[in-house]
Amino acid sequence: MKKLSPGSETLYRYWQNRFQDWLNGRPATAETGEAFLTALEADGLKRNTLGCAARALRRLGLDVPAPSVEIGEPKYLELEEIKRLIQRAPSLLERTILIVTFGSACRIS
Question: What are the pLDDT digits (tens) for 25-71?
Fold first, then answer.
């Protein structure tokens, strides 16, 4: 099994514990795993969160489907917004950094 980062281990353990609490003594099966994910979806959790919970259940050996992760379209600045941003930079260094960043098409998320 793939080694996880400490943060991922903590997150998966959270979802596994939450699943065990939700089971309330019932056996952990693929069907109960899918029912758990359906209940989370009904509670309004987003697909990315459901995917994380599903991957945590898979670590328990349950063959449950994981929803695909939603990747949104990046938001781009208009040319006039970029010009204003560069003009308002407080120092020559910051102005230079902005010009190089936008000139090289670097994306800052």
Answer: 999 999 999 999 999 999 999 999 999 999 999 999 999 998 877 77
Q: Is 84 exposed, middle or buried (0-12, 13-18, 19+ CB in 10 A)?
A: exposed
Q: Which of 102, 99, 39, 47 is nearest to 76 (CA)?
A: 102
Please count the other Cβ atoms lying within 10 Å of the Cβ belonging to residue 14.
13
- Cα 16 from Cα 96, distance rounded (Å): 49
Q: Where are the domains of the chain?
A: 6-59, 73-109
For the entire predicted model, the pTM comes to 0.64
